[in-house]
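Quick entry, no commentary yet.
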Amino acid sequence: MVENSDEKYLVFTVQDKQYALPSKIISEVAVLEKVFPLPLVPGYVRGIINRYSVPYALIDINFLFLKDASAARKIIVLKEEVDKLAFLIDDVIDIADLNPEQIMKTEQEDGSISGFFEWNNNHVLCLDAGELISRIKQDFQQ
């Protein structure tokens, strides 16, 4: 019997661009409720949200990459053991079953995008969660 090495990715949109994160690191997708602003944080950090009495930093992906604040009202919450982060998104598109060979590598200056794949005639950018978390932590330390 051949082992299935496909991995599931959550495909979502932010300002007409499609992105993906491995579903194994995602706790939930929810509607954005109250955001508690934080002083002295990078512009892409919208504040703190409360998920089941646990605070998560809310990251505006569009602002992080394009310096343009998003009006999105949905969030992707990472599993607590990954990090206490949530990402602001416009909408969920699909769940893609991908073999790692289907993801084409790309070179990006900050390393936040690990590659891309074709999905329903669109380029979907794969976010590198580890690099994103490292970048955010580094920005907080500055």
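second:
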Amino acid sequence: MFNAKKGIKAIILSAAIIVFSLVFTPNYADAATDGLYLGGFPAGFSLSTTRVEVVGLCDVLTSGGMCSPARAAGIKSGDVIDKINGEEVNKSSDINRIIAREYKKYIVDIIRGGNLLSIEVEPVKDLAANGKRLGILVKDSVSGIGTVTYIDKSNNKFASLGHPIADADNKIIEINGGTVFGSLIYDVKKGVRGAPGELKGAFESGSVIGQAKFNCSCGVFGELAENYNCSKLVKIEKASVDKVEIGTAYIYSTVYGNEPESYKISIVKVDKDNKDNRNFVIKIEDKALIEKTGGIVQGMSGSPIVQNGKLIGAVTHVFVNDPTRGYGIAIDKMMEAY
């Protein structure tokens, strides 16, 4: 749900944030995976980033009238503010803190289209706010809906998405913390060939799953909230990618409310050494899910994949030219990441 990639054979998108309808008798975890619980429920991600992106330009009320120093200097929407006078800008408040100082000139380093540019900008005094301003609107956070893959209660961890949150250039966004909330799915935009679908959800602000700590190629991981209740979740064992078989498996996902259901799929291909973590090619076989969503849709990223009663991976991407097919990451990769 957070980014798009182009594959060799097909364009794919992130499938991109409790009562179970079980089709297997859960295996209770052994000592190696004690405290591992099956996910499949939706989560709302509100993550702080270490990048400050310009999302608009605005005029500032000055003694000489209205003006935007940033616009006059050539700064554009989509630019990422990297540094001002050599000082790193990691959050929006850094901008006001730096330009409040008395410098003879202000050099703003920006990243645009992968290139680093240095632009001289002269801040102006804002009569309305009684401080200096550049005349820009910025954001330093990302938010969206995805799916929790598993809870590791023994280590107070959770894992989700199965793929990174990335920017428009497909680069992994470094996060600086954030909160992951429970979420309610209230609608689905059905996926069709050439146009991926999407789960639409609302954050439950009073239901905190945990604090996000790490965004990497294997997903978003974090610390479980101290009071998080696992009593309604199902304990499960994991299985290595070496144990995965071509054939029937199930995904656990939520397409309405916050209660996961199981849906039949097929494991079409296994590629345990895939460098992009596309360890499985999967195909949705469940007619009920296809009727509801058209197949895999954005927001389903992280939906756990279960085979023979064991957790083997998570859904990550959908083929745009065939929403019933997509990729999955092996659970080994996710657990090794954090």
